[in-house]
Amino acid sequence: MLGMFKRDPKKKLQQDYERKLQAAMEASRNGDMRANATLTEEAEAIRAEILRIEAQE
């Protein structure tokens, strides 16, 4: 019964992933390729965590 109040960690990770990709795109548009690479790498790490969680379900 209390399970319906539990937060979905996958949903939060998905939002973080999308935010990182958005920031990477903006960095790329501003010409900051180093920041773009760093943010993209962080986004891919978050994506890997999402896939790990999905595999456990």
TrEMBL record:
Instruction: Keywords in alphabetical order, please.
Output: Coiled coil
Q: Which InterPro entries match?
A: DUF6435 (IPR045493)
Q: Which Pfam families match?
A: DUF6435
Q: Which residues form a coiled coil?
A: 10-56
| Superkingdom, natural source | Bacteria
Identification of the protein by name? Lacal_2735 family protein
